[in-house]
Amino acid sequence: MPAPAGTKRVRGVSVHRPFAVYGTEAVPFDPNNKPAKVAQDHTHKWKVFVRGINNEDISYWVKKVQFKLHETYANSVRVVEEPPFEVEETGWGEFEIVIKLFFAPESNEKPQQIYHGLKLHPYDGDIEAKKARREMVKSTCYEEVQFNEPVEQFYEILTGGVPVRGKGKGSKQQKVGLTAEIPENITPNNVYSREEESRELNRLDEAISTVKKMVSEETEKMKAEEEKLAELRQTEPVLPPPKKVK
């Protein structure tokens, strides 16, 4: 019996899509120039988001994004149905945000849920200097979604190009190439690239070499200590164990 229309899958095929970055950005308020409408105890303006690499469009395969904030926020579950997939708020405390991705209806895929901690305060480098300059605090992660044996209609959406309407009245939609790969080079707004991947692999190789060297040095020290101990056993008299007093 043939599969119902729209549910037949492309067997033996996996398609991955990087949605590149999800995370938060936070900026502390200037105490002397704080917006009047902001709550008195709120210290930061922050944003949580899901983006494509270099802000490429991901809406051809992501239908909407749900952000679940801390329960103390009014309307703590926010649903964004078109790009940019982000929520802006103000606050004073850090908490975990639940992010749920809903894929295009043609995908016949279940939503995917991820978690990300809101960061308001600097956590690396010269922390005190960053606080004094009221620098933006960024906390981002790179992620990919892999669709195993997608249904045929969704496979066409993933691989056939992004529909883009031309400028002017009556202009027809055209398809532009898809962004399925990580960019080759780092850009000012994005470090997730083949270049950064190569740097990270080099850092890992250097760390492995350092650990191997440390292990080798400690092994040699242990051998030397064991040899000294063996010499002492040969030259020094071995005292009998003390007798037990009844």
Can you walk me through this structure?
The chain has about 250 residues and is an alpha+beta fold. Helix content is about 25%, strand content about 30%. It contains three helices and ten strands; from the N terminus they run βββββββαβαββα. The strands form three sheets. Strands 5-2-1-8 form a four-stranded antiparallel beta sheet, with no helix packed on it. Strands 4-3-6-7 form a four-stranded antiparallel beta sheet, with no helix packed on it. The chain has a two-stranded antiparallel sheet with strand order 9-10. β6 and β7 form a beta hairpin. The protein is extended.
Largest sheet geometry: 4 strands, antiparallel
Uncertain runs are 162-166, 173-177
Distance between the termini: 90 Å
Count of alpha and pi helical runs: 3
Task: Using the alpha-carbon principal axes, give the shape.
Answer: extended
Strand content: 25-35%
Q: How many strand elements?
A: 10
Q: Work out the radius of gyration.
A: 28 Å
Q: Provide the spatial order of strands within the biggest beta sheet.
A: 5-2-1-8
- Give helix % range: 10-25%
What is the N-to-C order of secondary-structure elements (H for helix, E for strand)?
EEEEEEEHEHEEH
| Computed structural class | alpha+beta
What is the mean predicted local confidence, pLDDT?
A: 84
